[in-house]
């Protein structure tokens, strides 16, 4: 770390020399950090949508109970985001990132060691508590890569968030087929397997965090500046609505497909397409992210997610769900990427971690409401379709809100 003129510590790679070797090292660091969202989101959160039908069949849950487990994860995510908001300046993003990776991995493994609903709730909360600092601190660290090159900086941030697609691809290509082969009662072993994959993923993620931020003392408290919350309201509102809407889709899409008679191979293909789309999304959206100074990128990616959700409902399977997975896959990680890029372009570096923690807090509140509310709606109506319709409508509303976000600094949007 180095200190600026006001005594604030800033993240800086260990080798500050501007050379091709350093650039290559920075890209490897971005890839290593991207394993963080692969574990915290791709495995610990989104894979629940794959395991949910088996857990529901084996444990005889209602849709409300099934939705509650992901709401519990969101409660933990909110607690983790609030803790990260308070601790990121004291302990630094590197330490929060590493601690979150370990905690999330432990929670995944523990989820395979019980069949009790409330104990599972506790482990889902624990996974959320660990996942939030991974997402927040990793985003803050990725924001420091290529700080003087907005194009490569935006791409590096997108590569970081795009790592979540790796977790989706790994879980999507294996989980439905394993559960089909061994039956619904195999779900505990599925969580154990995901936990082992997460443990392996800790190795490159922790290396990247240590390579970016050399060991040092706590970050000092001086130099703090309050965020301009009122001027950020459209972006904050758009991000809250994204959290509210997208997790309904990811929680219940597979259950809706299985309810409609979809076979395991189709579920695996759909989830894998979504994961591949997520990994490709940094390259598809990089120009939009690099050019956007205000809420444009967030609005467009929210819009794409909403349209993708409705595609699954409007077009007949398998075309509808395959196209939906492709559109949502290339778009939904761009919303948090846009939130991080917005902070990177409009705020002081000392505020980046705080900014994304605030975004993530609102995002977490939305996630808390969405799955359990959609589950209750499914129990009331007798099907998951109305909840997916609600998901798409919320995402479109989020796009309409975010489009009003103006740059906090001069520049085109």
Characteristic terms for this protein:
mainly alpha; Growth Hormone, Chain: A; 413 residues; 14 helices; globular; 2 strands; single chain; disordered N terminus
Summarize the structure.
By secondary structure, this protein is mainly alpha-helical.
Structure description:
The protein has 413 residues and is an all-alpha fold. The chain has one domain (24-215, 228-402): MFS general substrate transporter like domains (Growth Hormone, Chain: A, Up-down Bundle). It contains 14 helices and two strands. Strands 1-2 form a two-stranded antiparallel ribbon. A hairpin with a 5-residue loop joins strand 1 (2-3) and strand 2 (9-10). Helix 3 crosses helix 7 (187-212). It is globular, with a radius of gyration of 20 Å. 59% of the residues are buried. Residues 1-18 and 214-223 have low confidence and may be disordered.
Number of alpha- plus pi-helical segments: 14
User: Between the first and last Cα atoms, what is the distance in angstroms?
Assistant: 32 Å
Major beta-sheet overview:
2 strands, antiparallel
What is the CATH third-level topology name? Answer: Growth Hormone, Chain: A
- Average pLDDT for all residues: 88
Q: Give me the count of strands.
A: 2
Radius of gyration: 20 Å
Order of helices and strands: EEHHHHHHHHHHHHHH
CATH hierarchy: architecture: Up-down Bundle
Strand content: under 5%
Task: Give unreliable regions as ranges.
Answer: 1-18, 214-223
Per CATH, the class reads Mainly Alpha
Label the structural class: mainly alpha
Q: Which of globular, elongated, flat, extended, rod-shaped describes the shape? A: globular
CATH H level, superfamily name: MFS general substrate transporter like domains
As for the number of domains, it is 1
Which percent bin holds the helix content? over 70%
Give the strand line-up of the largest sheet. Answer: 1-2
